[in-house]
Design goal:
By secondary structure, the protein is of the alpha/beta class. The protein has 2 domains: 12-163, no CATH class; 182-642, Alkaline Phosphatase, subunit A, CATH 3.40.720.10. 44% of the residues lie in helices and 12% in strands. The protein has 21 helices and 15 strands. Strands 1, 2, 3, 4, 5, 6, 9, 10 and 11 form a 9-stranded mixed β-sheet that branches. A hairpin with a 2-residue loop joins strand 7 (449-453) and strand 8. Helix 3 crosses helix 4. The longest helix is centred in the N-terminal third of the chain and has 41 residues, at 2-42. It is globular and about 90 Å long. The N and C termini lie far apart (97 Å). 51% of the residues are buried.
């Protein structure tokens, strides 16, 4: 009898334990659903402010991970259900555990600090409201939660669709010129020339670029028109400087005043394709105007922006995060396109690709590339990378001497991976049999500072050569001789005119840079004004690293002029800095006071260039949208005659 009683007691205890487990699972599921709703809806804020964001598929995966995490937290906190008021203590415990995880994977930045408590607090409040309502209507909270989550998944794309200006797609392509070549334009995002083996770097970071340089023309001194993705790509696509096309840090949208490269090629019968994991290349920012096809893999995978999602930072901390920033998918999409498209297609094609693998966070690479130049552990590399990511948004970062070597190793691994992906593009064209009939242009949109300037790591708030000195090469055997090396300084702004020139087409009259084709045949001299511009960029790390460097202040605009080895940097606050890159390639000495005649001559050249290009003064009030200057009627008539305007 006593044994039966003991078994009954034991069974009772087991039943109560099972009840707590089941209750913990159910409560954890509710908490996870509440956290998923919070995460998805909070993601709407940056999406609307930036004009782009991930799609429902990516958000749905984030939500599923959050729900699964909620279930795990519910199980972990289940023992408190044995206490009085256990149901509410269980909810509080889950909120505290989630807060601890948020702190564990936090980005050390004042911009993101509120997320450490917002997510667990909002999830706890929503879950408590649901539990309170479940006492009276058990099914209603679940229905409300499902509707709220579903609405959140589609809120971002619907809001973007409703608020962004329409991009009109061409209904029918005109006939293409006979024997028009295909054009493939590849941007190696964030790759600086100084870290590319083709440019003399000591590490063999870029074998694919090395090989292409032997088969085409390599520009040894190319300057990008700006220092981050939006203005640089807008300049690449319009052939105009940022202050002219108007898409930059102070106005993040490219309007339709100027025809884009894709529109020009489309207007000449080209089929146009955009394949990229860089979120800045989006409809919401006006950069995809003229592309008939845009790959949607970014919206499904999140690209380099996954690091801003709590769930993905947690997976990353646990070593479970997909290390690729989307480059493999971009390469695969291109390979699929090349395999599916007949070698003798009826129309020529223009394909734009962007590989963003060298971009921060530096550690998000396939392991073979992450550890190629360093033996440090993944945890150590990740910690450095995440801290430097936080510093881009106002965080304290790390001491430069402590992290410079491992950061450079990670960055070099990213350059190497980018080169590998470029090699896949070249191999796909070769397998298709069209490589030698394709105008292939490879460049970077901007470079990267790796601790050389006041401990700053990243890009955006400076016009030093680390930021604007980029690789540029052109391969097109019918016109471009093999192995050409161009020593003359050039601007990548000339890529638009160069592509149109090599394709045998007439350029639009809106371009501010001429074709670089004469340099491919050995021409000497300056191709035109070489400028670079940076609009006020306080949110991109400028002025937040404690530097007194006058090129690192984020409260002003900057404009750069190159004439031979001389480099002038002016600002909207009256700064005038002069460097001689021939004797001081590291720009360690401002010569403005020592060489006043050179300074005055460069300032005169800058004024002349501004007048020649029709640029406003760097400190002029911003003119965008309806206030921006319209094209004159003569230019419009020329555009209409060429088929670039209605």
């Amino acid at each position: 009898m006593m044994g039966s009683a003991r078994r009954s007691v034991r069974m009772g205890r087991g039943g109560r334990a099972l009840y707590r487990v089941m209750r913990g699972l159910l409560s954890g599921l509710a908490f996870g659903l509440a956290a998923a709703i919070t995460e998805v809806w909070l993601g709407l804020i940056p999406t609307l402010s930036r004009g782009f964001g991930a799609g429902p598929a990516f958000s749905a995966r984030v939500a599923l991970w959050m729900i699964a995490l909620g279930v795990l937290l519910g199980l972990a906190a289940a023992p408190v259900l044995a206490l009085r008021a256990g149901r509410w203590l269980h909810l509080l415990t889950m909120s505290l555990l989630l807060y601890g995880l948020a702190r564990w994977v936090a980005l050390d930045s004042p911009i993101f600090a509120p997320m450490e408590w917002t997510l667990p607090l909002a999830a706890g409040v929503l879950a408590s409201l649901g539990l309170g309502l479940a006492g009276r209507r058990p099914r209603l909270p679940w229905a409300i939660g499902a509707v709220a989550l579903g609405a959140g998944l589609f809120a971002a794309p619907v809001a973007l669709w409703a608020t962004r200006p329409a991009i009109v797609r061409r209904a029918e392509l005109p006939p293409a010129p006979a024997n028009a070549p295909d054009v493939v334009l590849v941007v190696l995002d964030t790759v600086r020339a100084a870290s590319v083996s083709t440019y003399g770097y000591e590490r063999p970071t870029a074998p694919a670029i090395d090989a292409l340089a032997r088969e085409g023309a390599l520009f040894l001194d190319a300057t990008s028109p700006s220092t981050w993705s939006l203005p640089s790509h807008a300049s690449l696509f319009t052939g105009r400087y940022p202050s002219s096309h108007g898409a930059h840090a102070e106005h993040r949208y490219l309007d339709d005043r100027f025809p884009t490269l894709a529109e020009v090629l489309e207007g000449n019968g080209y089929e146009t394709f955009c394949i990229t994991a860089n979120a800045w290349i989006s409809d919401g920012l006006g950069l995809t105007r003229g592309f008939g096809y845009q790959d949607e893999s970014l919206r499904a995978q999140g690209g380099a922006g996954r690091g801003f999602s709590f769930v993905h930072r947690l997976l990353d901390r646990l070593g479970l995060q997909d290390a690729d920033k989307g480059g493999a998918t971009v390469a695969t999409r291109f390979e699929e396109w090349a395999q599916a498209r007949p070698a003798a297609a009826e129309r020529p094609a223009f394909v734009f690709l962007n590989f963003i693998e060298a971009h921060f966070p530096y550690h998000q690479l396939p392991r073979e590339h992450l550890f190629r130049y360093t033996g440090r552990s993944y945890a150590e590399l990740r910690g450095i990378s995440i801290d430097l990511l936080g510093a881009q948004f106002g965080g304290p970062g790390r001491e430069a001497d402590e992290v410079r070597e491992p950061t450079r190793a990670m960055y070099d691994g990213g350059v190497g991976y980018t080169s590998e992906l470029l090699g896949r593009v070249v191999d796909a064209l070769r397998a298709r049999g069209t490589l030698d009939r394709t105008v292939l242009v490879v460049l970077a949109d901007h470079g990267e500072v790796l601790g050389e300037r006041g401990g700053f790591f990243g890009h955006g708030p400076t016009l030093y050569q680390e930021s604007v000195g980029v690789p540029l090469l052109v391969r097109y055997p019918p016109t471009v001789p093999m192995g050409v090396r161009v020593d003359a300084p050039v601007s990548t702004l000339g890529v638009f005119a160069t592509i149109v020139d090599l394709a045998g087409l007439a350029p639009p009259p809106t371009l501010q840079a001429k074709s670089l084709r004469p340099f491919l045949a050995g021409a000497a001299g300056a191709p035109g004004p070489i400028l670079s511009e940076l609009h006020a960029a306080e949110e991109m790390g400028g002025g937040r690293v404690g530097s007194s460097d006058p090129q690192m202040w984020g409260d002003r605009r900057y404009r750069l002029l190159r004439v031979g080895d001389l480099k002038l940097v002016t600002s909207s606050k009256g700064d005038a800095l002069l460097y001689d890159l021939g004797t001081d390639p590291l720009e360690s000495r401002d010569l403005a006071a020592e060489r006043p005649q050179d300074l005055a001559r460069m300032q005169e050249r800058l004024s002349a260039a501004e007048a020649e290009l029709g640029l406003s003064a760097i400190d002029a009030p911003l003119a965008v949208g309806e206030d921006a200057p319209e094209l004159d009627e003569t230019t419009r008539e020329r555009l209409r005659a060429l088929g670039y305007a209605e």
